[in-house]
Amino acid sequence: MAEMTSEERVLRALQRQEPDRVPHFEWLVDRRVREALCPDCRSYYDFAEQIGHDAIIVDPNYRKVRVGEHRWRSEWGYVTEDTAEEHGIEVQSPIKTMDDFRRFTPPNPHLPERFAAIETAVAKYRGDKAVIVHLNDVFSLPRYLMGMQDLLMAIAVDPELVKALVDMSVDINLELAKEVAARGVKIVYTGDDIAYNKGLLMSPRHFGELFYPGFKRVIGGFKELGLYVIKHTDGNLWSIMDMLVDTGIDCLDPIDPIAGMDLGEVKAKYGDRIALKGNVDCAHLMTFGTPEEVIAATRVALAQGMPGGGFILSSSNSIHSSVKPENYAAMLQALREYGRYT
Hints:
Number of helices: 14
Number of strands: 13
Oligomer: single chain
Distance between the termini: 7 Å
Strand order of the largest sheet: 1-6-7-10-11-12-13
Largest sheet: 7 strands, parallel
């Protein structure tokens, strides 16, 4: 098979077809891992180019201002605190009640400054690497705006507030998607985690009543714009897999192995309808294991995911700060050796 560009390779996988080889990219590679594997790389973009990622990941830009030694307030009004990772965690949120929601004004999704990095990436990588823009669906923005604990409580005691937040998230992200598609982007991913190792963060009934209608609407809107959609969520998703697939997503990530999401089983049940991305364990194996163990696990993931196409190899979440650089290098080595279609 003729050598494809990275963009062609990713698109072929999202179309559930066989490319020349299995594509690979990560949502995040921690700076410490990047520097260990590529000391001369000055940025994430340099690293993605030199290490051979098939996609470039870009976010819309939101301003933030420092409000403490390690704290930042975003345009959305929530405050994050720096962590050992490259992303912070929200510690203060602006919405507690429906009255708070009614007074709240979200950031303008159409400001040109939102899309500067996206425009740069498209101009540089169009026709070479896939440019994938991170948007949201129905859970992350409500969580940021209420805080996790208050949002989970509101699911039980104030469902109308939850519905209002979900609708706002959908409306804003559909407007962002229009801007993104107009700039030549072909793929978006939503990073809204809705589950943990044992199941959903809410009951399947609550998901179906409060979140699923908005989720279906936002995915449908993305698809109407001609965008491919990769849905990311960790955790055990078996209780809502049919609902997720029925929305029309093109790909599910990361098929979390420590949460009981067996890649082979998901492939057998849903591989004729969605592509899959994952799922080498980054929580334990890539953090505490050996390169030989990582190579073995990568070979298993390839054997389960590759047949018939529709597979993107990656970690089971991201290459976080505790991942051993040599283990990530081992995964890439195994991909090069065993990830080519013949």
